[in-house]
Specification:
The chain is an alpha/beta fold. The chain folds into 3 domains: 110 residues, Cobalt-precorrin-4 Transmethylase, domain 1, CATH 3.40.1010; 84 residues, Rossmann fold (3-Layer(aba) Sandwich), CATH 3.40.50.11270; 86 residues, Cobalt-precorrin-4 Transmethylase, domain 1 (3-Layer(aba) Sandwich). It contains 11 helices and 12 strands. A 5-stranded parallel β-sheet has the order 10-9-11-1-12, with helices on both faces. Strand 6, helix 5 and strand 7 form a beta-alpha-beta unit. It binds pyridin-3-ylmethyl trihydrogen diphosphate (2E4) and iron/sulfur cluster (SF4). Iron/sulfur cluster binds next to helix 1, helix 4 and helix 8.
Length: 316
Amino acid sequence: MTKPPLALYLAAPRGFCAGVDRAIKIVEMALRKWGAPVYVRHEIVHNKFVVDRLREQGAVFVEELEDCPDDRPVIFSAHGVPKAVPAQAQARNMIYVDATCPLVSKVHIEAERHHEAGLQIIMIGHSGHPETVGTMGQLPPGEVLLVETVEDVAKVEVRDPSKLAFVTQTTLSIDDTAGIVAALRARFPQIIGPHKEDICYATTNRQEAVKAMAPKIDAMLVVGAPNSSNSRRLVEVASRAGCSYAQLVQRATEIDWRALDGITSIGITAGASAPEELVDEVIAALRTRYDVTVTEVETATENVEFKVPRALREPA
Ligand code: 2E4
Ligand code: SF4
């Protein structure tokens, strides 16, 4: 039987960003330096495939520092941790390596600087997400207020409207955040903040690539995990840009073939924590049912690289 033709548009950039590359490298280098087990507080990045592979090499994933023994190294995930976490590790004389993405650490420093200048901070982020918990946890309780929506901006109760700053999570929707920032500036004209927001280059580029592709395609598959904020935003961006079917898939086995019935074009992208092997797997699965022609849609080039901490570059 002949397979129906399918025009496959592959987003570029997609998949791993510099912060994820660095975080995974940190775990691998720590395993080499100290041997197994090395503990990791929270999924190093939000991807089961990455976590499983590191677990096979001897990494032990836990949610809290309390679940780690004193005498084994612990790594903090790319999303960042509240100040209390390294403080507790130090108090227990533990070896720890911080795999927080430098672009998340930059936001932590920004928040601290505003606090030292006597400002209360409003964070735009998702409640309960580890990055939000980590950034808010840089300062004492009450010093960082969380808003998730434009409606929250209308309700938030601040200490002094003339002494305010804002910071954001790095993986938010560019468009939603612009609306929330506009609402903040309208209600609090004196609020201080970054030029736009703190959304990182990788989040921005992946959303832009999806926007460029959406008009060309009948469906969009985003390779990524359900707990990955940046991946979920890519699904939303595709839907809003007019793609009638946009779906997050962790890997090929999650493709809903019935939903793809009758399509002639498809877009594929991957969140910043999704390995390229899983993109390849999805494309291979499509090839079993369709006569696929691949076109890459490149809207930006990336050459960002982050060094691993010095402790890992030195012998044990
Ligand atoms: C740290 C900061 O934050 P998100 O849920 O998108 O994390 P994920 O692990 O999926 O992606 C990597 C990452 C890590 C993004 N920003
Ligand atoms: Fe860092 Fe951005 Fe990657 Fe998050 S998505 S790890 S902030 S580079």
